[in-house]
Design brief:
By secondary structure, the chain is an alpha/beta fold. The chain has three domains: 382 residues, no CATH class; 176 residues, STAS domain (Transcription Regulator spoIIAA, 2-Layer Sandwich); 147 residues, Jelly Rolls, CATH 2.60.120.10. The chain is built from 29 helices and 16 strands. The strands form four sheets. The protein has a five-stranded mixed β-sheet, with helices on both faces. A five-stranded mixed β-sheet has the order 4-13-12-15-10, with no helix packed on it. Strand 12 and strand 13 form a beta hairpin. Helix 7 runs antiparallel to helix 8 and helix 17 packs antiparallel against helix 18. The longest helix is centred in the first third of the chain and has 36 residues. It is elongated and about 115 Å long. The two termini are 51 Å apart.
């Protein structure tokens, strides 16, 4: 490793130090609280053991999963829901007459079994089932997690000894302390006041410093009540004999209590797996990365088996702590594992400082972090619905209602039930027949070309390098149940040489917010890998600006020509979810042929530029004159006439009399045909420099079969039919070579057309 590489890595590490500190401060109060929750049934004398078991899990689980986990920003460790299940198992065991030591054995056997369950689930790739969780449910999960953290922290932030919000109303003895509210409130204000203004220190740390300073100033100069402190934690208590070391003792204990261990193991395993997978996907959505949830499950399964064996609390993905380091601008996994390492070091080196932190300030910090974790896009959508500022409200109404439903179920029951209920409601809202694959077919640019007829050398380059262009034709509905197939197909193409990816929406019927998020994720993936994403056949909604300016009701039929023209729902959904703004309108094309032609131009700029000796060299080196001597070329050249056309000029019209053929020296011309029964014309081809058109004039003399219009300023060399007849009589050798080469051009076009037809019929 060179010195420059070392300095570069050290430079990156310094940016992760702040987020790691934020993760440490977010972990500390939670680790203490979860330890107290898990062993609460055993009484106060087991509190220190419970805290040590929780801290040990936070350190060991956090460091290993931080360095080895698939999701580099997913902080893992003890969680409240699994701590509650553990407490329930201990409580049931005690009710059956088990001793505290035996109850602990039963509980940690359950943790060990939960780890085995997770390991099996990851091995069987069951984590991919979460792909069917729609984005509104995911947003509801994130918002519900944040709200639950806030509700659980409010009693401490108010200085109350109550264990819940309900406990605040059960006691009427004035147990809320005003000074506690001031300390926690100043912590929250300090957090948001710092924001991005202070670069060298995370906002969460700034808020904690402000709250702690307010507390110590208050108790030092005024007779104000004192807060409970974090307190000194004995690190030595982490090292003890593994709880499940004595196998014979474990078997005797489980004889009459195996049902408790199995039920608790299954519950902890399900909750931990669900928590990890959903949290990992939420972090992926926030950061734009794509982690392997099955690998994460396997690692967590192994770690939880180890936690159960040595007697530590079970671990899983912690969304609030993970979002804390993400919002603190973490760059690498060092911030993840570093939060656990700094947490351990803080307990050893800075134990007095950590011990002196008032729990009122730490509660305020957790509330601030949770508020920051709430999904702003969901709040913005809901606010636009309430204030009626959202155009075409139906494109976001379902998302908002599902998100609110998930939050409500989570508050009434638990997170796992909330997400399951949200998924069920989402599935009911969609027709089951829409779940077929959204990928109609996919093909490469080497097999199918645009309707731009180019010179032979350009076509050769496109056949050689065309595999760098990939086209995916979509069909039906692109929603949460079908996005995984699209993402898989797109990533397969991008990982196998495709640099320009076109998504064809011609046969797509609808898209939801999850589909929009998939497009945004594919665009970000392309940007990171130096590739480009293009979209075709999505009709833009041009009435957005007029409706915004006039403040009209967008759903009124008068805004759609008395209801005859329906809103462009796909465009509106992409616009409401920020996809149009992210990709840029320049990446949207009216049709796939135009998009394909654009990608071909990008390829030719890289690979297909060939030098010519001026424009005359282009004519002399064309395939049409291959095999001719200079004298023969000069003879043919004297028969031609130079003709210039400005952009928009008609070279000739359909049904005109054929009188001459053209060789395009530079510029472009479009080939259009009349649409029967209408006054419209349809473009079927485009000719570029080095190609010939109107050649049937010198062969059969039939009326023109199409209209040719100059797409740019154009220069052509033309030969009249009469001149060709004269040339045939005077210079038979020139005509013979010319007709032979012309036949080769026709054969090449026919071969290319056959390949394209064969490809498109698959």
């Amino acid at each position: 490793m060179t010195a420059n590489t070392i300095f570069k890595k050290l430079g990156t590490l310094r940016f992760d130090l702040g987020p790691a500190c934020v993760g440490m401060f977010a972990t500390l109060p939670q680790a203490v609280a979860y330890g107290l929750i898990a062993l609460y049934p055993l009484g106060p004398k087991w509190a220190s053991f419970g805290i040590a078991a929780s801290i040990g899990s936070a350190i060991l689980f956090g460091v290993i999963s931080g360095f080895l986990g698939s999701n580099r920003f997913l902080i893992s460790g003890p969680r409240a829901v699994t701590a509650l299940v553990l407490a329930s198992a201990i409580h049931i065991a005690l009710d059956r007459g088990s001793s505290p030591a035996d109850a602990l054995v039963i509980a940690f056997v359950a943790v060990f079994g939960a780890g085995i369950f997770q390991l099996i689930a990851g091995t069987l790739r069951l984590g991919h089932a979460v792909s069917y969780v729609p984005d509104p449910v995911l947003s509801g999960f994130v918002n519900a997690s944040a709200i639950l953290v806030i509700l659980g922290t409010i009693p401490t932030a108010l200085g109350s000894t109550a264990s819940s919000i309900a406990g605040l109303f059960e006691n009427h003895d004035g147990n809320i302390i005003a000074f506690a509210l001031v300390v926690s409130g100043m912590t929250v204000l300090g957090h948001f006041a710092a924001g991005n203004r202070i670069r060298f220190m995370p906002a969460a740390t700034c808020g904690l410093i402000v709250g702690t300073a307010v507390y110590y100033i208050g108790v030092s100069f005024f007779p104000l009540p004192k807060a409970p402190l974090v307190g000194i934690i004995e690190i030595s208590s982490l090292w003890h004999k593994p709880i499940l070391f004595d196998i014979s003792s474990i078997i005797n204990t489980l004889v009459d209590n195996i049902d408790i261990a199995l039920a608790s193991a299954l519950t902890i395993g399900l909750l931990a797996s669900f928590d990890t997978v959903i949290s990992s996907r939420a972090i992926d959505s926030r950061t734009g990365q794509h982690s392997n949830v099955n690998a994460e499950l396997r690692l967590h399964g192994i770690l939880n088996a180890v936690m159960g064996f040595i007697g530590f609390l079970p671990g899983s993905g912690a969304l609030s702590r993970s979002l804390a380091i993400v919002d603190a601008k973490a760059r690498t996994r060092t911030a993840n594992a570093g939060s656990a390492i700094i947490f351990a070091l803080s307990l050893i080196i800075f134990a007095p400082v950590v011990a002196a932190l008032p729990l009122w300030a730490t509660a305020g910090m957790l509330i601030a972090v949770a508020l920051q974790a709430i999904d702003r896009m969901t709040i913005d959508k809901a606010w636009k619905l309430i204030t009626k500022r959202q155009l075409y409200q139906r494109v976001i109404l379902g998302d908002v209602l599902i998100g609110i439903f998930v939050v409500g179920v989570a508050l009434l029951f638990d997170l796992a039930m909330a997400v399951c209920a949200g998924v069920l409601v989402s599935v009911v809202l969609f027709v089951l027949g829409m779940s077929k694959s959204p990928v109609r077919r996919s093909y490469r640019g080497s097999r199918v070309h645009s309707r731009i007829l180019r010179k032979a050398t350009s076509i050769q380059w496109l056949e050689k390098e065309g595999d760098r262009i990939g086209i995916i034709e979509l069909q039906g509905a692109l929603f949460f149940g079908s996005c995984a197939r699209l993402r898989s197909e797109a990533l397969h193409l991008l990982e196998n040489g495709v640099e320009y990816l076109i998504l064809d929406f011609r046969h797509a019927t609808s898209i939801d917010s999850t589909g929009a998020a998939t497009l945004r994720a594919l665009h970000l993936h392309c940007l990171k890998s130096g590739k480009q994403l293009f979209v075709s056949y999505i009709e833009p909604e041009h009435r957005i600006g007029r409706l915004q300016n006039n403040n009209d009701n967008p759903d009124h039929p008068s805004n759609h020509r008395h209801g005859k023209i329906q809103p462009r729902w796909i465009w509106l959904t992409l616009y409401a979810n920020g996809v149009i703004q992210t990709l840029g309108k320049k990446n949207f094309f009216d049709d796939t042929d135009t998009a394909l032609g654009h990608c071909e131009e990008l390829l030719l700029r890289r690979f297909g530029k060939q030098s010519h000796n001026g424009r005359r060299g282009l004519f002399a080196n064309s395939l049409l004159l291959k095999g001719m001597t200079r004298e023969q070329i000069a003879t043919l050249g004297r028969m031609t006439k130079r003709q210039r056309f400005a952009k928009g000029d008609i070279v000739f019209s359909q049904d005109d009399e054929c009188d001459r053929a053209y060789f395009l020296v530079y510029g472009r011309v479009d080939v259009l045909i009349n649409v029967p029964g209408t006054a419209r014309k349809k473009r079927i081809n485009t000719f570029t420099e080095g190609t010939m058109f109107g050649e049937f004039a010198v062969l059969d003399g039939a009326p023109r079969s199409a209209t040719i219009i100059a797409a740019t300023n154009t220069l052509c060399l033309s030969i009249e039919r009469t001149e060709f007849t004269t040339l045939r009589k005077a210079h038979q050798d020139v005509v013979t070579i010319l007709l032979l080469n012309l036949s080769k051009v026709f054969a090449g076009r026919l071969r290319l057309a056959n390949i394209m037809m064969s490809e498109l019929e698959q």
